[in-house]
Amino acid sequence: LYCRRGILRSKQWYQRRVRAICQELGFQNLEEPSWESDGSFMEEQSSLPIVMDDLSCSGYDFASCSFSREHNCGHSEDVVINCNPEVTFSLVDWEGRTHSLNYGLLIATYRDGESGTVCDDGFTTTNAIAICQEMGFEDSEYASWESDGTFMKEQSSLPIVMDNLSCGGYDFSSCTFSKDHNCGHSEDVVLRCGPAELEPDLQVQFSLFDRDGNLNSTNTYGLLIATYEYGESGTVCDDGFTKTNAMAICQEMGFEDFKDASWESDGSFMEEQSSLPIVMDNLSCGGYNFSSCSFSTEHNCGHSEDVVLRCGSM
Description:
10% of the residues lie in helices and 31% in strands. It has helices at 15-24, 125-134, 243-252, and strands spanning 2-3, 6-7, 34-37, 53-57, 65-68, 79-82, 87-92, 103-110, 115-118, 144-147, 160-167, 175-178, 189-192, 204-209, 221-228, 233-236, 262-265, 278-285, 293-296, 307-310. Strands 7, 8, 9, 10, 11, 12 and 13 form a 7-stranded mixed sheet that branches. It is built from 3 helices and 20 strands.
């Protein structure tokens, strides 16, 4: 911890002192701040004066503290404070499974085991980059985010454990946040830690659901559902959709009459359709083979644009 006039000392430190200083610095998340002694934390640290010793606080407000400007210390006793509770992040898919791909519902987990979603209040691209970098993604500079309250099955049963995240730079050590919130799950952050386009080797499967929401592999007509290899599943938006796209998908599903494929848009084809996420947009196929297709998992669609596909003649 750096003081304007030098470095603080570490004699007889307790949690009360740490909390008082973190609170004085304006940090809100004071549940478990921590400290350590480190004489080599900062370059040229040894050239700084030691200006405080024997700090004593009777409460969690710095106004309750007393200290001495005289010391009998060495820099090996300099105090380093962490005003953020230790927290890790992960991305989960539609089924709530943690995966290594770069897109998913953002989950924060504190060291005491508390885990849940992150609210979008004050969330920025800088925040997104800082978190993606914290998770180790190489393409964190391309990070983007959106708010989605229906991304994960049973998402509404999760607690919201982080709000008002504010990062001063691209390193998570520059971030502050609060564990208290005034949010609903419609404000949950979904994060992408890389370019928007899917990787070429990401596998996707298609299926057709009937009006009752049943899957039958012999159905040639139904609501088109895309399922990615990591489990995320949902509808396909009609932006840019063509007969060529329809034929490529029908052939991918193994239908022999794929050249007779046709499609339409229908937002009320299936009961509870509106509760499904939209997981594919801007599909573009250069031929009748799905390997010729590209698409995006980002969308600007409503369910009235969901694709209903027929893989054969009427």
